[in-house]
Structure formats: structure tokens, C-alpha cells
Design brief:
It is built from nine helices and six strands; from the N terminus they run H-H-H-H-H-H-H-H-H-E-E-E-E-E-E. The chain has helices at about 5-15, 45-115, 120-125, 130-200, 205-230, 230-235, 240-255, 270-280, 290-295, and strands at about 300, 310-315, 320-325, 330, 340-345, 350-355.
């Protein structure tokens, strides 16, 4: 937020007497605790226990993904509300300046009457002995009445406008504060889930961590194989649009960059940060979160998808990836991972949306 923007918000706050702290500092995660060195005679966990750990980690990271969507939604809403507060602050500043000028004009009119002996124009008119002066004066009195009436009306309207701007600014500031609290609550959820996952992983020996990674790969491959065995790939033959090609080019260029919740690049991304920025680069702004992408973008049958379309995963729409063709996706998986290519069927598909065709779901 720039200096001018802060100054305008400060003006609005001063008018409505509502000074609040509107932003919470971000919190960086500490590195996971190093893996303990196995002592002599220490045995590895059975495969079934590691599978339970894998499922537990998946559950924790999915919960973190849901919280990340909440955080991103609150952040996006706060940006919009902040912009509205700034616009109201500008209106308040302009209204105050207009009111000052109108009051100066009213004061000048009162001073002119005082210099005329305190008598209203009608009195001077009656006292005139010259018929032509009388007629000319009558015209000026009528004009003066209209001008005074107009000035008073404009003063009243300007004061009413300022009062309404102040009320609107106060309401927006309250919403902004509520959004800040929602954002902070979502951040706590994310930190809690990731901390638990990191603690769980760090308790494993190196060999167990390696085996756990293998189990994750095996689970993804199994799901992808089942998806391909359905014959779905034989039906998917759509070609990317020009915008879709640009979006795919952007997304695949980010491969290898770390996942970070709430990030939109250029160094780190979360899942929807990657897809939204890819489409912005292609000239199409889309919703920031995976859940809003699912709600607002046009729904496409899986067999009709083409490169550049977005695949929404899990029943709660907590993850999103970009289809790049040949049954593959590019996505930012989760904390501790990097942007990578994976099988489109490696996770439960909720549905597919198309950013460059229509503005709403079918």
C-alpha cells in the first residue's frame, strides 16, 4: 500500500473516528526438526505403519490446503475493501474542500449584506425613488434569491454526502477488520496443520522417509493407472486455444519452484496462485482460489478438456492443477514440494473448468 493510499485511508479513519490496525504481519515457518539419527538396534516401522503415516500426512496437508483457500479468499476480499476505503477517502477529501468553498461563498454573501447596513435587498428596493432603479433592483433581488437558495441547497447536499461517505467508510473499515481476523485465523490453521505434518515426518528415520516418499508415488501411480485404464484418454483430444497455450507455457516454466501457501509467484506458488497467475499471463484474469475457480468458471466434461483447462480436485475443491495434455497436469502440490508434472488422475477429480470460455458454470 503506497504512501498516498495510506494517507487517504488515514483521512477516512479520522473522519469516522475509527483508527484500526488493518494488516497482520506474515509469519515465516521454521525449518523442520532434523531427522533423528537412529540408535544402534533401532528398527524401521512396518510398511502398514508407514502407510498410516502417509494417510495422516495427506489429511493434514489437505486441511492446510483448505485453510490456504480461506486465507487467500480473505486476502483478496481485504484488497477490494481497502480499495473501496481509499475511494471513499478521496470523496471525503473532495467533499471537505467543496464544503469549505461553499462556506466561503456564504460568508461573502453575509458580509455584503452587512456592508449594506444590515438591510436585506428588499428593503433597499422599497426605499428607492427611481422607477428604473426599482425595476433593475427587482431583477437583481430575484437573481439573488435564486443564488442564495441554490447555495444553501448545495451546502446541504454536500454535508449530507459527507455524512454518507463517512458512514460508508466506517462500514468498510469494520469489514476490513473482520477480514483481517478471518485471515489471521486461517493463517493459524495453516501453521498448525503444517507444523503437525512436519513433526510427523521429522520423527521418521531417513530410510523411513525415503520409503514414505515411495508410498506417496505408488499411491499416485495407482490412481493414475486406474484413471487411464478407464479409457478416458482415448476420448480426450481437445486442442489448446491460443490463450490456453500461453497459460500452459507460463505454468510449465515454473516447474521446480517451491510451494508456499498464499504465494502467487514469481519465486514461489500455492496451487491456485500458479493457475491464476498462468491465466493472467495469458490475458485472462480468473478467481484467486481453487474454490472460487470451481464456482465461477465454466464447467467442462472431463472428456472435453484441453490443455490450459483447470482440473479441480477433492470434494471440497481444495486443490487445482492445469491440464497440459497427454493425461498430465502441472501443479504446486503442497508444502515441502515444488511445482511439478503429475498424472491428471493421480488425485480424486471433482471436475474441470475452462477459464477462456464463458464466465460461469454450465
Amino acid at each position: 500500500m503506497g504512501t498516498g493510499k495510506r494517507g487517504l485511508i488515514a483521512t477516512a479513519v479520522a473522519v469516522v473516528c475509527a483508527v484500526t490496525v488493518l494488516a497482520a504481519p506474515g509469519t515465516a515457518f521454521a525449518n523442520p526438526t532434523p531427522s533423528p539419527t537412529p540408535s544402534a538396534g533401532q528398527t524401521l516401522a512396518p510398511a502398514k505403519d508407514l502407510e498410516a503415516v502417509r494417510k495422516k500426512l495427506d489429511k493434514l496437508y489437505r486441511a492446510a490446503a483448505r485453510a490456504t483457500d480461506e486465507y487467500n479468499a480473505a486476502d483478496e476480499k481485504a484488497d477490494k475493501q481497502s480499495t473501496q476505503v481509499v475511494e471513499l477517502a478521496k470523496k471525503i477529501v473532495k467533499g471537505q474542500e467543496k464544503l469549505r468553498k461553499l462556506k466561503d461563498r456564504a460568508g461573502a454573501a453575509a458580509a455584503a449584506q452587512y456592508r449594506g447596513g444590515g438591510l436585506p435587498p428588499e428593503a433597499h428596493l422599497v426605499l428607492s425613488d427611481d422607477p428604473q432603479d426599482f425595476l433593475d433592483g427587482a431583477g437583481r433581488v430575484r437573481e439573488g434569491h435564486h443564488a442564495t437558495k441554490g447555495l444553501l441547497g448545495e451546502l446541504t447536499r454536500t454535508q449530507e454526502d459527507l455524512e454518507q461517505y463517512a458512514k460508508d467508510a466506517s462500514a468498510q473499515l469494520k469489514k476490513l477488520e473482520a477480514g483481517r481476523k478471518a485471515k489471521a485465523a486461517a493463517q493459524k490453521k495453516i501453521e498448525k496443520q503444517i507444523a503437525q505434518a512436519e513433526k510427523l515426518e521429522s520423527a521418521l528415520q531417513k530410510e523411513e522417509q525415503e520409503r514414505l516418499a515411495e508410498l506417496e508415488t505408488e499411491a499416485a501411480n495407482k490412481a493414475q493407472t486406474a484413471w487411464l485404464d478407464s479409457g478416458i484418454l482415448n476420448e480426450i483430444n481437445g486442442k489448446a486455444s491460443e490463450q490456453g497455450k500461453k497459460a500452459v507455457k507460463y505454468a510449465t516454466a515454473q516447474i521446480g519452484k517451491p510451494y508456499q501457501w498464499g504465494a502467487e509467484g514469481p519465486r514461489t506458488y500455492d496451487c491456485s496462485g500458479l493457475t491464476s497467475q498462468a491465466w493472467i499471463s495469458a490475458g485472462r484474469g480468473i478467481p484467486r482460489t481453487s474454490q472460487e475457480q470451481w464456482k465461477q468458471l465454466r464447467h467442462i466434461d472431463v472428456q472435453d478438456m484441453r490443455p490450459g483447462d483447470l482440473i479441480i480436485y477433492f470434494g471440497d475443491a481444495s486443490h487445482v492443477a492445469m491440464y497440459i495434455g497427454d493425461g498430465a497436469i502441472v501443479h504446486a502440490p503442497r508444502p515441502g514440494r515444488t511445482v511439478t508434472i503429475a498424472g491428471a488422475g493421480s488425485m480424486p477429480i471433482l471436475g474441470v473448468v475452462r477459464p477462456d470460455a464463458g464466465t460461469g458454470p454450465n
